[in-house]
Structure formats: structure tokens, C-alpha cells
Write a structure and sequence with these properties.
The chain is α/β, with parallel strands linked by helices. It has eleven helices and 13 strands. The strands form four sheets. The protein has a seven-stranded parallel beta sheet, with helices on both faces. A two-stranded parallel sheet has the order 7-10. The structure holds uridine-diphosphate-N-acetylglucosamine (UD1). The site of uridine-diphosphate-N-acetylglucosamine has 19 residues, from helix 7 and strand 8.
């Protein structure tokens, strides 16, 4: 069964490609390489023994996208990962984010309609939830993103919900990711952002391999157990498995309609939990200093993973030690290769 992955060479897309291939799906990848590398295709091949068909195109380029659908008949579903994702950049260049992250969905939907492809899985984010004092967050919580990046996720969700309502044969699953970290156990796939990382784990990894001096922990006076921010970190391979479960659901339910699911573990870890676990399992000493709070950050956020467990049969199985170990292994390997 053929599945089209947009952004399939990115961090989450590539791990999902591997899990899909291992589950017997036939994967076709579209990626413009704007934030990914072609070598990832070889890594997928090395891990699975299968090199997916690949097209270097921008999803917003309708003519090129049509060609992909023409050359690959019978695509069963599209999993849409492609998109810009840097929160800070989205604040400075909102149009870039709105144009790209919205247009790609519009273009995909139009082309899917033309070719009668009726199943869609969307990479959404926990960032679509409004700030809440109540935890854990379940799928019925109020929505309200606080920056342009987050709003592109929220607007996309709305577009897809409206489109589904108007087209009852169309099925869509929105997956709201909490904080994906970790890397593939082979050490061949992982996250290595260009420049200085914004997110916690990539930053810690760069400190661990000596590329950065120390971690700045943004705030130690939050209302949490140790004063540092609490998040729901989920291993990227678990997250990838969540996509396979969502897809299985669509395969087995022809008229599925709409589904919305959190993908998280339900456990909140603080920044200090992460640093301490990282240092323990990697025999490393990542130095840190406490710094000012980062504007826009909240004290804590973690998921209720119940709905995904009950309805998709998905449960994250990898623990924080696995996440810290695999992230570091990938960073070390990757540094040697550079
Ligand atoms: C961020 C984005 C979110 C996006 C997600 C993708 C913001 C405000 N939110 O979430 O929209 O969906 O990434 O994974 O950018 N921290 C430090 N030092 C650092 C980096 C982070 O102390 O150098 C802390 C943060 O204050 C936070 C925690 O680590 O408490 C996690 O931060 P991060 O990895 O950036 O994720 P989020 O902010 O949760």
C-alpha cells in the first residue's frame, strides 16, 4: 500500500518512513531539502534495505506535485510533515510561515482531490493548546496558539476539519505531538538542526560533544518541582510508531471521518530531569547555568495519552534514558561523519 510522505527526510518524517517500511508499507517521499539532507535517504535504505522513491520538490509547486501523483498511481494516504518549524523565525517572518505552511496543505488537498486520494494524516503540535493550569491536557482542551508557527498548525487543523466536513469520503487524523526527542537506535537518523539549536535536546547534545560551552536553563523559578520547565518528551521512534497506528486505523476503517490525537507519554519531566538523566546515562558532564526565562515559555505541559491508547492502540514504550542515550549516540556519530 502506497503512502506519500511530504517532508519525509526531516527528523520525524524519516523515522516514520522507517517504521512504515518495516510495517510493510510502500513509501514515496517528497522533500525540498530546505531543512534536511539527501543522505537521510541512504540512511533509510541502510536501516530498512529499501530506498524509497524520492522527489526533490516543494509541496507548494502544484505542477510538480501533480507529476508525483501521476507517476505513483493508487496512493492510499498522505502524511504531511513538510513545513517550517522555528518559532522565533515565525515571529520575525510571519508571512513566510503563513504562505508556506498553509499553501502546502491547500495544494496537497487540491491535488489529492484530483486524484481521488482520500486519507490524510497531519503533523500537528501540542502548541495548538491554549495555556492551561490543568494537566494533563486532553484533546478537548481549549485551543489557542501564541505565535505564527503555532497558528499555522491551528489554522491547518481548521482547514482540514472544514474540508472533511464538506467531503464525507475524506478521512483525516490530526496528530498533536508533544516534545519529540531521541534518535533511531542505529545511530543513522536523528536531529541535527543548522546553527545554534533552539530546542533543549539538540542544544544539550551540542554541549555534550563540545560544540557549545554550556546549556542555559531558561528559568528556575517556575511553579514546578525543581523550578525548571516541565514538558512531555516522547521518543521520536515512538512518535513514528504512532503514525503507523493512525494509518492502520484509516486502512481498517474506510469511512473513518475525523480523528484528533495527542501523541505524548503522559509524563512530565523538568529540564533538570533531562540534564541529570543525560549526564548519568552518557557518563558526560553537560554544564549548565540558570538564565532568564525565555519569553513565551510556560511552566508545565504534558499530555493525556489515553485517547490514542484507547482508539489507536498506541502507547509510548521508550523511556527517558533511551531518549538521552540515542540522542547522544546520533550526535557523536554524526559529528564524526561531518
Ligand atoms: C518548542 C516550541 C513549540 C514547538 C516545539 C517543537 C517555543 C516557545 N515552543 O516547545 O512551539 O512545537 O518546540 O519541539 O519555542 N530550554 C532551556 N534551554 C534551552 C532550550 C530549552 O532551558 O536552551 C527549556 C525550555 O525553557 C523548556 C524546555 O527546555 O522548558 C523545552 O524547550 P524546547 O525544547 O524549546 O521545547 P518547547 O519550548 O516545549
Amino acid at each position: 500500500m502506497k503512502i506519500l510522505l511530504t517532508g519525509g527526510l526531516g527528523y520525524i518524517g524519516s523515522h516514520t518512513a522507517v517504521e512504515l517500511i518495516n510495517s510493510g508499507y510502500d513509501v514515496v517521499i517528497v522533500d525540498d531539502l530546505s531543512n534536511s539532507k539527501i543522505e537521510v535517504l541512504d540512511a533509510i535504505n541502510e536501516i530498512t534495505g529499501v530506498k524509497p522513491k524520492f522527489y526533490q520538490i516543494d509541496v507548494c509547486d502544484k505542477q510538480e506535485l501533480v507529476k508525483v501523483f501521476e507517476e505513483n498511481s493508487n496512493i492510499f494516504a498522505v502524511i504531511h510533515f513538510a513545513g517550517f518549524k522555528a518559532v522565533g523565525e515565525s515571529v520575525k517572518q510571519p508571512l513566510k510561515y503563513y504562505r508556506n505552511n498553509m499553501d502546502s496543505t491547500f495544494t496537497l488537498l487540491e491535488v489529492m482531490e484530483k486524484f481521488n486520494v482520500n486519507n490524510f494524516i497531519f503533523s500537528s503540535s501540542a502548541t495548538v493548546y491554549a495555556v492551561s493550569e490543568v494537566m494533563p491536557i486532553d484533546e478537548s482542551f481549549p485551543l489557542g496558539a501564541s505565535n505564527p508557527y503555532g497558528r499555522t498548525k491551528l489554522f491547518n487543523e481548521n482547514v482540514l476539519i472544514d474540508y472533511q466536513k464538506a467531503n464525507p469520503d475524506f478521512n483525516v487524523i490530526l496528530l498533536r505531538y508533544f516534545n519529540p526527542i531521541g534518535a533511531h537506535e542505529s545511530g543513522l537518523l536523528g536531529e541535527d538542526p543548522n546553527g545554534i539549536p533552539n530546542n533543549l535536546m539538540p542544544y544539550i547534545c551540542k554541549v555534550a560533544v563540545g560544540e557549545l560551552d554550556h546549556l542555559n536553563i531558561f528559568g528556575n523559578d517556575y511553579k514546578t518541582k525543581d523550578g525548571t520547565g516541565v514538558r512531555d518528551y516522547i521518543h521520536v521512534v515512538d512518535l513514528a510508531v504512532g503514525h503507523v497506528k493512525a494509518l492502520d486505523k484509516l486502512v481498517n476503517n474506510k469511512n473513518y471521518g475525523l480523528g484528533i490525537f495527542n501523541l505524548g507519554t503522559g509524563i512530565g519531566y523538568s529540564v533538570l530531569d533531562i540534564v541529570n538523566t543525560f549526564n548519568k546515562v552518557n557518563s558526560n558532564l553537560v554544564k549548565y547555568e540558570f538564565a532568564e526565562r525565555r519569553p513565551g515559555d510556560i511552566d508545565k505541559m504534558y499530555a493525556s495519552p489515553k485517547k490514542a491508547e484507547e482508539e489507536l492502540g498506541f502507547k509510548a514504550t521508550r523511556n527517558l534514558e533511551d531518549m538521552c542515550k540515542s540522542s547522544y549516540e546520533y550526535q557523536k556519530n554524526h559529528k564524526e561523519k561531518k
